[in-house]
């Protein structure tokens, strides 16, 4: 059998996208649905590959099949390339399997020549239309096939319009158009050295070859390289008979969505123009009419279109974006595709389609991209307002949301301004834990240094604050309270806007839209919960965080960072005095003060969570992070402690570390100062006992020891903790259940997890730190060079954003395997930033972890990602089972 | 058959140390050799265990066997516990398998009582001797068996001596002694509530139980805990008939080595005293005589002893340390053991014994502990001078050797003092690469911060300089040029001594002994080379280093750190200007200057090495390490660069990193500034081409890319390097072979080594950095808490000193396995500090690495360790083969 290189629309179907391109496959599908599609045929992508294999010539068998399809087309429409009185006109379009902007697109009106233009004029009784069509065809053909710059044609057109004082193209007279055709042909000859081809078949072959050739033009190759599309796919070419919406007031053209793409409302949404071609709608010369108006103008056509739209939506089981043309009162469809939509509409449509029975709930859940949810959960700038805003610079979109406010350069100034009721943007070179209060007082944070996992970024995401980090174009002078961006100096109090999704920084304020999480969103998230297997918990450090986390659907708290509680204004002085204590007794005195504060927090959090789990991480950062850096703070502290400033500074200096990330922190603090962890554990257990009594729930605190590198180290710290717990139990004459686990974040802990698991009830993978240590990247410093890596195509995606499965993932997988070997009941989770990243969540699910924990604002995204991976895994499992059943037969 | 709880000397042998203890086994062995050993028997270690199992009582079957052995003993010596006229006197000694200071040691003269003391006086015609013996026995028994403090007895003795104006015990008259015996017995009764036991069998049973009980006294348990000795071994008890060296001028006692323990010379070495007991020799009241003198005093005894000594040495195949007693002209041996000796003697004895055919060369090589060699290679303080030196403080013994000198607090001052001919001790809070010149100008380095792998420690070991690091007791004020140690303030120029082996810091100067590596050392090291399988290379950064490395037997250079070349006085300004260049052209200008300097170094090093390999590591540390910190240096640099100081400081500040260890360094610099590596590679290849032509050797430079974390990163950097090499080849119209490899030091590189190996000719494991990142320990900071870990028994041994096999070793092993899977020809080596550590070398050998590289001064140690592990592995292999042969039979 001869290979089929050309498919008539009636011969294809929508599944043949790889062979016929997206356009060709959909036109075939619609044809076979019996819809009014102008007839045509598609030359396959394989023909394109063959075209290159043959040294960029069209192979004879392909040409023969084109001829044959063309004869069928002529018969179908009753017109012919060779009958100037009744000429066949066609459009020629490229159509790859994936939409590719870099390629040649469309030639319309092919088939026109000096003879047939007269025939068309006669046939349509509309010579202006005929010559206008010819003029457009010459220009498109010259542009697309011969790369003649459009400017040559546009210059001529402009001259005519200027001479005649025309504003619009449709003011051109027949004489003008006849003259323009002659001039256009002259330009064509001048620029190409050839006369404009008069033989339609010749026109067609040249056009097809031009489409094929455009597959390998520079822009297309670059586009495929960037988007990881294979260079071996080729493009198809679709040849379709022309219909004209510009043949009078009984003609028209339009585009409509089957549902509202902004809200998802189930109602035709679109616009049309009478007596116009598609490009006129786009050109915006006349204002198109709302699609509803079509019901009044042409009720029969409207109803037909409405029925077709419903039929297409049912058929494709998704909202459609449909292009149509009406020629002389007859409706034709030119294209249908799944319509683009806003995040809110996407959710609403998916829920509605499932409710309507068009798709399953699983399909509905698979329809929403996790990235879309993010937009739903945060305020965004008003799209129209954005158009008028001046972009000053672009940094990293480190925490989504949009914020406008007055800029302040210190925590104190930010707090003061917020108290005065001003919206604040905190601007810092980089943030440190000291800035927490300032960040909480701000709408958004802008930093000059640091990457996606810098302190500012991590904390902002945790707080749900918008953040642009690593905006290197911002030269910040914190002393003098100025920032210079793009040559403009801004002072404290000036207005600035930042978009934490795009990383853009704008001058002044911009109007915002707040998220509205309606009933359909809730329904959707309920379905998500039904399907997901991974537990999704939130990182939460305060009662406020816990409330937020529960509201966003968290199933518990996977990471409560106790140190964040230390930074409250009334606590930090006590913390500082505790750290700088010269004797154990002195330290214990301050720890006793902190005990009450921490116990109260834990009690409230446990009471809010009731029987939902909470994992509390004991003190993790190096102690010097809590110490003052500002001179005034040092003076105040020295006074409070009754020591001289010099002595205090020397003491602080002695705590300085060359590489704090790899320094005296985490459980290392508990080896040297066991009393700190003992105080924290006492606060946790005492808080939990009270909360248990208050709520009547069984509260099981999960105590997590960070930065463990060795089983003996864990055993040592655990013994201290257990001793303290036993003391509390005995003092209170009460016991509650509790778990003790560890973070696995140090590479050595990962490779010795078989030992460590024997002392742990659970592992929580701290993939942030494991990425830092596993790659040897300091997240505070790596921003400087990782950008160059990205520019050079290295280390993509950013391993701080998406878990590096190949390296860090291997360590996590190994650790999970080793841990469960010696402790089969070991509970495994993730509390790094990756816990909120969909790709990473898929990996965590694939290696059998039990839960992920992420910022409250990432919880819905993580839930969706978990549901989607569960659906995929289930599908894969079903398919394996099916194969097994089949092979068993 | 009844279990044997008691072994007569004639029933045992030297292999039964576990059962009979070291002493008992050796006495048995000597008895069976037919040597003159006073007869006796040993109660086994198993009896000791049984003693505890039975609730601290002697089990009847054991008592019965003791009785039986005692009867044989009485028969053998013709004396009896029950014949006061001819009393049997015995010594009772503990004897565990391992020597244990914490335990009860010796009771002499057991068997004496009020009746037999008279019999002994009569029998020996020496009542003074008899009563003196009884007095000593009462005191020893009271002390050892009943824990009566010695002070009670010593007080009485002192009173008598004072009353009579005696200086020495041997001035006591018979009356004095008779009176003392009465008083001692009264003290015994007062302190114990019992009369002194008069029944010899009762004395013996009490003594045996006391020895057994002492196995579990607090000091013994602590000692075993510290030295990792099992608590279940028990101690044996040896009961031996007494001989007396204090029975007149035909009696005596002494101790002698079969060879000189200081030099190894084959000649009896020892001393003796006539008419004395062993403790008199130790007490130092009379000056003992040289063993040679015995030949004149008692020629027959001397000759008998000499023959016995030779026989023992032949039998034990090692130098012996022999205790003997002469009683009434008859020679008895009381103990023999392998003699302790100096490092120099150890080498000489091992070589001699092998030459004499007593041991094989392999055994000779196994005889020397690697730690001993270290002492041979460095100067040490004179032992006697040390006794008089005042220890000011103790830090970490970070680089062996001993140094005295004037203290200076900066590189500039140190250099100036050295030019003036002064020996210098550089005193710094911690060192940085800037201090290199100062370290080179010093005899030794003392730092207050940092651990065994701090900058100071690592560089000092590389330079062979002595270093005490992390001496926290030293409060250093670099500005005012003072250091306060132990309350004493020292100023610039004051004298100080440091011992880099022990970590001790002394006031003033101390006399030194320099190493003398004689002919026997060379012979020994030749044997080592014959046996080892691992290649041993040296880390060397300059032609001087290469000479040193070759002199110490390095088989090439495994790590040449190019950055160390940057710190030379005439180069660092160029390096700084290169780093701070604002444009690529500017940077290239300075790189061109550096090119000439580096090329010259490489050329000289390659010429020295000829066909021996050299691995050159391209620039590794973060650039800011090269930048000035001192104000004066900054001013000078700003002037040289024609920029303002403020601008320069801002630029330097912008290069600051929070965690430089995890920052912009290693091949990351080559991704952002490819021109730096290109310059270095050009210098290497050009230098190698010239050296090849000069020497006629085939020189194959091995170029090493540090800090690789990903194969794409390696591929990118390698492509730049290869392009530069091709340029050089084409310019010079010459080619030479070369290899390109990578350091594996980042955990992710280890776990993705299968990919990385596809782009690498060799891997060199950078176990220092891998330990830092694998554990999450900054070597600059970890000193602060690792000491507490060690104190608490955690993380031993220090993972920076001995490779952590369980964790980091697992990564190295995995990397080696993955790497050879995809690249079977991959060469594997180690260039971290662990490359010079014997335990680590054994591990590297066991996982099949090809070479280790270490500081030149560690090369002999590494060679020895490599030989020893090869011998052990060969033995294990032979034993497996033997088992296979046996099981096949």
Automatic annotation (TrEMBL), chains A, B:
Q: Which InterPro entries match?
A: ATP_grasp_subdomain_1, PEP-util_enz_mobile_dom, PEP_util_AS, PEP_util_C, Phosphohistidine_dom_sf, PPDK_AMP/ATP-bd, Pyruvate_phosphate_dikinase, Pyrv/PenolPyrv_kinase-like_dom
**All residue ranges annotated as the PEP-utilising enzyme mobile domain in the record:** 423-489
Give every PEP-utilising enzyme C-terminal domain span.
519-870
Q: Which residues bind substrate?
A: 561, 617, 745, 766-769
Q: What does this protein need as cofactor? A: Mg(2+)
Catalysed reactions listed for this entry: pyruvate + phosphate + ATP = phosphoenolpyruvate + AMP + diphosphate + H(+)
Organism superkingdom: Bacteria
Domain Pyruvate phosphate dikinase AMP/ATP-binding: where? 61-289, 303-350
Q: Which UniProt keywords apply?
A: ATP-binding, Kinase, Magnesium, Metal-binding, Nucleotide-binding, Pyruvate, Transferase
GO MF terms, alphabetically ordered: ATP binding; kinase activity; metal ion binding; pyruvate, phosphate dikinase activity
* Documented EC number(s): 2.7.9.1
Where do the catalytic residues lie?
A: 455 (tele-phosphohistidine intermediate), 831 (proton donor)
Instruction: Name the residues that bind Mg(2+).
Output: 745, 769
The family line of this record is:
Belongs to the PEP-utilizing enzyme family.
Question: Which PANTHER family did the record assign?
Answer: PHOSPHOENOLPYRUVATE DIKINASE-RELATED, PYRUVATE, PHOSPHATE DIKINASE 1, CHLOROPLASTIC
**Which protein are we looking at?**
Pyruvate, phosphate dikinase
Q: Which organism is it from?
A: Trichococcus patagoniensis
């Amino acid at each position: 059998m001869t290979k089929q290189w050309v498919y008539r629309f009636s011969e294809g179907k929508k599944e043949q996208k790889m062979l016929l391109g997206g356009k060709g496959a959909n036109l075939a599908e619609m044809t076979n649905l019996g819809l009014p599609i102008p007839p045509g045929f598609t030359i396959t992508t394989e023909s394109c590959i063959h075209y290159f294999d043959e040294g960029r010539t069209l192979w004879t068998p392909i040409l023969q099949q084109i001829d044959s399809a063309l004869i069928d087309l002529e018969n179908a429409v009753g017109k012919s390339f060779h009958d100037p009185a009744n000429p066949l006109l066609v459009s020629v379009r490229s159509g790859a399997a994936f939409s590719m902007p870099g390629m040649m697109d469309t030639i319309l009106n092919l088939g026109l020549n000096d003879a047939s233009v007269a025939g068309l004029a006669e046939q349509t009784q509309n010579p202006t239309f005929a010559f206008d069509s010819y003029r457009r065809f010459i220009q498109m053909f010259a542009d697309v096939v011969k790369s003649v710059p459009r400017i040559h044609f546009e210059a001529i057109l402009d001259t005519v319009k200027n001479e005649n004082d025309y504003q619009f193209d449709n003011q051109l007279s027949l004489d003008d158009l006849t003259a323009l055709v002659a001039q256009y042909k002259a330009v064509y000859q001048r620029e190409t050295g050839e006369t404009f081809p008069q033989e339609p078949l010749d026109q067609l072959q040249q056009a097809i070859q031009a489409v094929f050739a455009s597959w390998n033009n520079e822009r297309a190759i670059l586009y495929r390289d960037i988007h990881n599309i294979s260079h071996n796919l080729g493009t198809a070419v679709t040849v379709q008979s022309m219909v004209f919406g510009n043949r009078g007031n009984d003609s028209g053209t339009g585009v409509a969505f089957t549902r509202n793409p902004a809200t998802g409302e189930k109602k035709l949404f679109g616009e049309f123009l009478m007596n116009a071609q598609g490009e006129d709608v786009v050109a915006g010369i006349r204002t198109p009419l709302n699609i509803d108006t079509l019901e009044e103008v042409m009720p029969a056509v409207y109803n037909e279109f409405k029925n077709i739209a419903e039929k297409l939506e049912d058929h494709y089981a998704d909202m459609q974006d449909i292009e149509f043309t009406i020629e002389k009162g007859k409706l034709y469809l030119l294209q249908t595709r799944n319509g683009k939509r806003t995040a809110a509409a996407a959710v609403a449509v998916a829920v509605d389609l499932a409710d309507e029975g068009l798709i399953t709930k699983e399909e509905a859940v698979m329809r929403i991209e996790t990235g879309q949810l993010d937009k739903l959960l945060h305020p965004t700038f008003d799209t129209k307002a954005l158009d008028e805003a001046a972009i000053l610079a672009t940094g990293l979109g480190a925490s989504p949301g949009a914020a406008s406010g007055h800029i302040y350069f210190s925590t104190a100034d930010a707090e003061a301004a917020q108290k005065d009721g001003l919206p604040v943007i905190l601007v810092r070179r980089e943030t440190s834990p000291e800035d927490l209060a300032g960040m909480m007082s701000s709408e958004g944070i802008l930093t000059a240094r640091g990457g996606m996992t810098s302190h500012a970024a991590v904390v902002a995401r945790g707080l749900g604050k918008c953040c642009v980090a690593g905006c290197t174009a911002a030269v910040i002078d914190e002393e003098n309270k100025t920032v210079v961006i793009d040559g403009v100096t801004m002072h404290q109090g000036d207005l600035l806007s930042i978009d934490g999704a795009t990383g853009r920084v704008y001058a002044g304020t911009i109007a915002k839209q707040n998220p509205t999480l309606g009933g359909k969103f809730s329904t959707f998230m309920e379905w998500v919960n039904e399907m997901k297997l991974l537990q999704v918990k939130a990182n939460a450090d305060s009662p406020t965080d816990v409330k937020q986390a529960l509201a966003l659907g968290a199933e518990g708290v996977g990471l409560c960072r106790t140190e964040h509680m230390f930074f409250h204004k009334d606590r930090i002085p006590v913390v500082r005095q505790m750290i700088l204590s010269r004797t154990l007794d002195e330290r214990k005195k301050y720890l006793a003060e902190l005990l009450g504060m921490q116990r109260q927090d834990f009690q409230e959090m446990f009471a809010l969570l009731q029987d939902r789990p909470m994992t509390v991480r004991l003190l993790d950062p190096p102690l010097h992070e809590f110490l003052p850096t500002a001179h005034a703070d040092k003076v105040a502290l020295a006074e409070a402690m009754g020591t001289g400033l010099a002595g205090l500074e020397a003491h602080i200096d002695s705590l300085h570390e060359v590489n704090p990330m790899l320094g005296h922190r985490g459980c290392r603090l508990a080896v040297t100062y066991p009393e700190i962890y003992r105080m924290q554990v006492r606060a946790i257990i005492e808080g939990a006992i009270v909360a248990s009594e208050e709520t009547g729930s069984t509260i099981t605190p999960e105590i997590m020891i960070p930065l463990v590198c060795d089983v003996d180290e864990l055993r040592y710290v655990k013994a201290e903790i257990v001793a303290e717990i036993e003391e509390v139990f005995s003092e209170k004459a009460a016991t509650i259940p509790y778990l003790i686990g560890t973070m696995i974040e140090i590479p050595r802990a990962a490779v010795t997890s078989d030992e460590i698991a024997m002392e742990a009830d659970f592992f929580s993978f701290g993939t942030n730190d494991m990425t830092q240590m596993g790659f040897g990247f300091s997240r505070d410093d790596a921003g400087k060079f990782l950008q160059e890596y990205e520019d050079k195509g290295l280390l993509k995606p950013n391993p701080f954003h998406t878990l590096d499965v190949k390296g860090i993932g291997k360590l996590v997988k190994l650790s999970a395997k080793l841990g469960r070997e010696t402790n089969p009941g070991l509970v495994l989770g993730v509390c790094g930033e990756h816990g909120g990243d969909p790709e990473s969540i898929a990996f965590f699910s694939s290696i059998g972890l039990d839960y992920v924990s992420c910022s409250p604002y990432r919880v819905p995204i993580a839930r969706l990602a978990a549901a989607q991976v569960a659906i995929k895994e289930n599908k894969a499992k079903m398919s394996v089972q099916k194969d097994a059943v089949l092979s068993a037969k």
